[in-house]
Structure formats: structure tokens, C-alpha cells
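Why run this: before we spend reagent on co-expression, it is cheaper to look at a predicted model of the complex and decide which construct boundaries make sense. The entries below are exactly what would go into the expression plan.
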Amino acid sequence: MLERFVESIRAASSARPLCIRGSGSKDFYGNPAHGEILDTRAHAGIVAYEPTELVITARSGTPLREVESALAEQGQLLAFEPPHFGTAATLGGCVAAGLSGPRRAAVGALRDFVLGVKMLDGNASALTFGGQVMKNVAGYDVARLMAGSLGTLGLLLEVSLKVLPRPVAEASLCLEAPQEKAIELINGWAGKPLPITATCWCDDLLTLRLAGAGAAVTAARRQLGGEPVEAGAAMDFWRQLREQQSDFFAGNPALWRLSLPSVTPALDIPGEQLIEWGGSLRWLKSSGDAAGIRDAAARAGGHATLFRADPQLKLGTGAFQPLSPALLALHRNLKSSFDPRGIFNPGRMCREF
Amino acid sequence: MNEKRQHSPSQDQDFSDVDRTAILARLGRALPPGALLSAAEDLKPYECDGLSAYRELPLAVALPEDEAQVIEVLRACHEFGVPVVARGAGTGLSGGALPHRHGVVLSLARLKKILHLDPAARIAVVQSGVRNLAISEAAAPFGLYYAPDPSSQIACTIGGNIAENSGGVHCLKYGLTVHNVLRVRAVSISGEILEFGNHALDAPGFDLLALMIGSEGMLAVVTEVTLKLTPKPLQAQVIMASFDDVEKAGDSVAAIIAAGIIPAGLEMMDKAATAAVEPFVKAGYDLKAEAILLCESDGTPEEVAEEVAAMRAVLERTGATDIRVSQSESERLRYWSGRKAAFPAAGRISPDYYCMDGTIPRKRVAEMLKAIAGMERKYGLRCANVFHAGDGNLHPLILYDANVPGELQRTEAFGAEILALSVALGGTITGEHGVGFEKIGSMCVQFDSAALTAFHAIKGSFDPHGLLNPGKAVPTLHRCAEFGRMHVHGGALKFPELERF
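The model came back. C-alpha cells follow.
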């Protein structure tokens, strides 16, 4: 399998680039992809998993589902709760996209759990960075750099992730609150030692998930009040939110992902909003002008991603907030050091490379 | 500029033609009075960092008072091709702030303002010279703190923490520096301001924030940082458990994790370590035990009670010979005092000590401790072991006397053997102290030439002339070839493609 990857990389050129792809569940994400498809799915399988080491290592083509069920059997999980966006999502695609789910604000993002990677660079050289241990500061943190790089720096072969035990107890509750009030409440709670692991505000309804030690969840439920959500319904609610299958995400208007400081007041932008991550993540369904949305996000100290939209619209405005000239120069330098011929996923992250 | 001065992955740079007079004159114009040191007696305090075995005098020390002056210093050094070694409090343990003899030490110690603390957003914006502990002190009135707590937290600066990706005794649960920093503002070698991250939870583009953290002053000079603040747990309790066998202690660590518990702290000390600290701190350690574990739980009182009971049950099952649970905050602090005093205690029982920092998979801990016992006999030196058992990060303290001819060399060889074994056991040569100058040779054991070349390319992406902290963190291929010549492992040469000199 690796030989085939090496051959594809050697045969590619800037005129005939590669489009690294697992199941294609995240084809919609980033700028439209082009190039010859390099399918990773044959390079699959869990390489090592020892629950007491809190680390799992698997090949990039391994179905994410397979990774998660191996962990579930041992009472563990990927704490960043990655969205799959499809039944056949792969681990490599999950790491390359770098997206995290509802638990992100409480426990950290996907990149926080990446411990090591094996990859092929643009010259088809095999590179190993990081490892399987929790603490490792030897060399630059290239493994984390790969998280969210959308396959533009290299082909991931293997990834080691830190895993965590599944919380002993979990409970969800909801309460009515208009947007301003909800933002104030969740930020206030986040400053207290409460076991809140997910928040979702939509349509004046604030839903919270508590998880941790049994006693802590019980105590927090008493303290926070609200209406309890039945366990089965709660599980569906958070899964549908993670997979963007909730009612909010239905329909076809452009979906924006606004990443903002959690305390940002309600944004005055036309369109419907759903707020996650304690106020830091705001989904916006809007046909409004891209420049206006990006300006509003930037003014608030964050950035806006055109998450799901017509490819033509993405090509026009770019999926991601443009980088400052200084950062763009660094991106170009890094891109050309890992992929000097510009063969990996050109334009997927930004039009300049 | 001569050719040997260019940054390249293969050859160390030669800065011997740096024009001392010219750079001093230029810096003198750029900085206010008192912000430039160049007399030998003024440079002396900067000759080393926390790793005093290596010393070097720089050409000058610049002490800028604000970011604008940092930019001026970097521009001047860039213009004249002069190496720059950034320095915080100088508490690092790997010689990362060891001066360059033809370079300038850029001290960030005067950038010590806490610029903004927002309790609602739970963030602190601070200059890079602010001390780690000062941030938690400032956040305390709001029930918040900055979680990473390296043992030097009373003195070390946040800029230094960024450079090393510092940890501490609570990082299994609360993460390392990289997990607690939202934004870094830095200045490039050419004097350009760079902003990595923001006050949201992610940023567009590559994760350059992650790349900056732990980059040991090789990529850019940090001037300002935004940190995530964490709500202070309502309560904390520590269990002290004794074992008559280090292997049982190691197994207990795995059993606690297997029980689904992530303790706030999980530390181990061997008999040599408890014997060293007990006379000084009177922590009440069990001196008969071969090893002791300190297992901390924090959270709400209900959570702590539940977790302490669960950990206690595990420890009883795995054969602890004695279990004590702190009954008050003062008792908890007393149990921790011995662990926190381990380094200074080593300094009291021995003229010198050398602290190692390898990380290995938890399950290999007993194997490592046995191997270290063998090395003590081989090198004729004593070693006390303390370690962050929860994340497999070992701090063997090799005791030696630098005044005895040959002891330092034996100590270095002892240390290098521990690091090589850390890599062989599936771990790394440094968990939290950094490579710096000290472990540059051991990097050749952990990484092959392809990975090292990639590191150099990253360095070149930020600092094409290689002026930021040259000779640290990432070895050149030539250096590894030389190192390989001296340390051929199992008869296999690590860099067969390179010419040997």
C-alpha cells in the first residue's frame, strides 16, 4: 500500500496534483477539491491500543467508527467528540479536517489530543513526528501542525491520539433563555467548577450536558435547575448536533461557522443562529454578504468560515477568513518546505497554495 | 557574510566574523540607557540558565522595556547577522538560554505587565516576562488560576513556558502549556509582528500556535500571550501510598487509569528520593517503602470524595503497604512539599545533580527503574528518581561532584544512556524541559535525518538566516554524524548517507 502512495506522489506534479481523500465525508469542507484522488482507505487498521496508556494508534484509512467502537469496548472515548459527517468517515480525514464536536470547549480540540503522526511529504519521504507518550517536547510540534491542515502538507499514514475514560455519569437539561441571557449564563457557569461538557443555544432554548463523577453531576443538576432531558433523547440530541442533523441544519442556505470569543454579545447579522461551545462557536444560516459576515467576526476578535455552501460561492469568497500578509508568507514557506512541488490538495485551504 | 554563516540542515553555522563593535554601537542607539550590558562583569549573571554545567559569555545582553524595543534589537541583529538568544527568567534546565559567544542575549524580563484580566471571558493577556505564578495570583480573587504549574513557577516566565511547552504536576488532567494558551504575539527576526491564535477557540490556516509552543526560541521572540484561566477546584485531597516494590507501584498507576480515573496529580518517588527529601522537609514519608505514590483528586467535595474512595480501592487491591489520605489542606501541602523539594534536596545531599527528563510509556516504568539501578553501578554514581507517573515523565536526578575529575563526563554518559533507553522503550528524550543545548546529541537517537531535515526547513520558514538561538534544539546532520561516530548503537549507523569526518 505504501508503495502505491509513494508512486502516486512521485507521479504527481503541480499540473497533475493529488486530492487526498478517505471516504469523502468532508468533501464539502474547505475550498472545492480538485486533482487525482489518492484514496487512503486501503491503508487501514488499529496499530496499537493500550487502554492503560490512554493512547490509540491507527492508520489513516481506518474508519473513525472502528476507532470509536474499539475505545467504547474499554470504556474510553475520543474526548473531542469528532463529527463524522458520514458513516464511513476515516481517522485521517478527521485529523486533516481538525474539527471537534460539542465537548470541545470543555476538554479541548482534536489538536490537543494529537500525540504523533507518520506521514509522507511531497517528496514521498516517510516522516515520523511526536510519538505515543503524553509529554514530548523533542523537536517542533509537527504532529499538531498536521491537525486541520486539510492534507495540504502531506499524506497522513498513521496517527496516535490521547484518549480518555468515558465519564461515569452524564445528564442533560434545558432551560429557556433569549440569546443575550444564554451567552451571559454559560460564560458565568464556565468560570465556576461545574462539570458542563457541552452547551447548545437555539430558538431561545439552552441545552446543557453535564458529565463527570456521579456526585458532581447530581450536585450540578440541583444547582443549575432547568428541565431534565431524558437520557435517550439527550444522546440523540448531542449526536444530531455533532453531525449537523438537527432541524437547524436542514435546508440549503449557506452555513457559516463563526469562531468568536465566548463573551461576544449577540451578533446583529441577518440569518438564524445556533450557538455551541459556551458561546465560542456560532453557526449562522445566512445568504448575507460574505464580506459583511467576515468583518463582523473579525471585529469581534474571531473569524468566519463558509462551512457549507454552493462551491461557486466558496470559490468566489474563499472558505476561510483570509490570512494577514505576515502569516500568509509563513504558510507559503511551510507549504513549500513540506510540499515543494505543490501536489497536495492545492487551493483546498487557501487559493494562494 | 561568509558562506559558513548560512543556515543549513547539514552544517553548524560559524558566526566568528560578527562585528562586535558595530552591533554594540547599533544596539546602544536603539535602547535607552541601562538596557544594554556589555561589560564582562555585567554579562556574568547571564552566562548560563538553570543548567549550570554549560556556561558561555555573550557579546551583550539587551534588556528592552517594551515590544518596540524588542523589534529594534531584532532588526539590528538581523541587519548585522548576529545570533539572538531569547531569555526569560533563566530557570530552564536544558541550556536553551545558554548564550552564544558571538551573539546577543535578548532578555524579556522587563516585559512584566499583566495587560488585561477578564474574569468573564476567563483569559489573561500578559507580557512574556510575567512570572507563571503571578498570573494565578492575579486571577485568584475571581476564583480562577492558570493551570500549568512547572516546579519553577515562582520564578519562571510565561515566555519561557511557551518556549518549552512546560508542564507541571497537574498536566495529566489540566494539560501542558499548549493546551492553555489561546494566543501568542511574537516578533520575527526581521522585526515583523506575528499573531498566532486569537481569543476564540481556533484560527484559520495552519496551527502555527501549536508550532510556536515548545519551539525553544528558534522561530520568533514572544512578547505577549493570552492564557486560558481555569476555575479553581473547590477542594483537593491527596493520597500517599507506600509500596514494597517499584513494579507494584508502577502497576498501581496503570490500574488507576484503567479504573477510568484521571487524577489531578499522580507522582512517584523512589526510596533514594524520599530518603533525600525527608530530613529537610519532614513530609512524613514512609522511608521503608521502595516507592511511594502521591495521587491527588480535585473538584467539588462530592467529586473528590467519590474519586478518593475509588483510588483507595485500587491501591488496596494492587498491594499498597500503607495508605494515608490528607485530612486537611496543611497536610495535603505537607505531602506535596517533599515532591516539590526533590530537586533542591538533591542539591543538599550532593554537591551537584543532573536532572533528566525522558518520557516513556507508563507500563515500562519498572523496567526503566531497574535499568537505572544497573547504570548506577556501571557509572559509579547515585541516582534518585522522582517522576510524573501519570504521564510517564521521569526525572532521574543523577548525583555527582563536578570537582571530582571525570564525574561530569560520567554523569553525561549516564544521562545519555537513560535518554537512549527512553527512546528504545517507545518514549522521548524530553517530556517538558526541552532539548536546548544539553540534549542536542540525543536528538540524533530519536529522529532520523528526514525528520531533522524537516525541522530545519520549518526553522528556515521563520528564520531563513538561522539567527534565532543557533546551535540549539535541532542538531545539524553533521553533528549527528559525529555523534553517531561516538555512539554507534547495535552496530547500525543512523546516518549512513553522510560522509564521516
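The two ends of chain A are 28 Å apart (CA to CA). Residues 114 and 161 of chain A are 5 Å apart (CA to CA). Bring this page to Monday's planning discussion.
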